[in-house]
Amino acid sequence: MARLATILARGGSKGVPGKNVRLIAGAPLIAHSVRHALEAGLFDAIAVSSDADDILEAGRAAGATHLVERPAQMATDEAGKLPAIRHCVAEVEALVGTRFETITDLQPTSPTRLADDIRGAVDMQTRLGVSNVISGSEAKSSPYFNLVEERADGSVGLSKAPAGDVVRRQDAPRCFDLNGSIYVWRRDALMEGEGLWFADTHLYEMPPERSVDIDTELDFRFADFLMSQAGD
């Protein structure tokens, strides 16, 4: 089975400027995702897609097998990620003359994941044969119990009404926060589907300490601390 790993990183980060090439645990942030893909040992190709030359160079130095220049119109604040992933897949397939069966997208701002997480998510998608697998961690708040929405009149209520009385959080259905770390698609679902969600979408659960998504300076410091404690 031919498998492709994609790692997409824009150059115009505003929350943490230059974060994708900023050093964390001794290496550029994006290098950790390339390393995770290599350590997973599953992929026939590992592609870094970016609109920034320094990110592409950091990907190359970390061991990515292909570098893809991301079109400017796919690198704006308003641009969705799915078109950029599809573009990356098409470019690599054209270069290598191979049609990949599964595509695994690794978020570059998730340096605390492990290669085992990637293997687990890919195995879930392969074993179940589902359209896609996404990753997440158990949510701290539940829409059935303690997550509320504000109504137009300023009052609040539960985001999702439970089927019966829920007096303990443990009695509510399990809910998860998407961590964005790993997405595994069957190729047709990615290239021909209309979005992220399918009737058979499954979730691969990761612990909170491996689910850090760097979006702020505090996130960066927290991830650096966790990685230093783990000896990563």
TrEMBL record:
Organism name: Pyruvatibacter mobilis
Transmembrane segments: none
PANTHER family: HAD SUPERFAMILY MEMBERS CMAS AND KDSC, N-ACYLNEURAMINATE CYTIDYLYLTRANSFERASE-RELATED
Entry keyword Cell membrane: no
Keyword flag Nucleotide-binding: no
Pfam families linked to this entry: CTP_transf_3
Name recorded for this polypeptide: Flagellar modification protein B
One GO MF term attached to the UniProt entry: N-acylneuraminate cytidylyltransferase activity
UniProt superkingdom: Bacteria
Keywords for this protein: Cell projection, Cilium, Flagellum
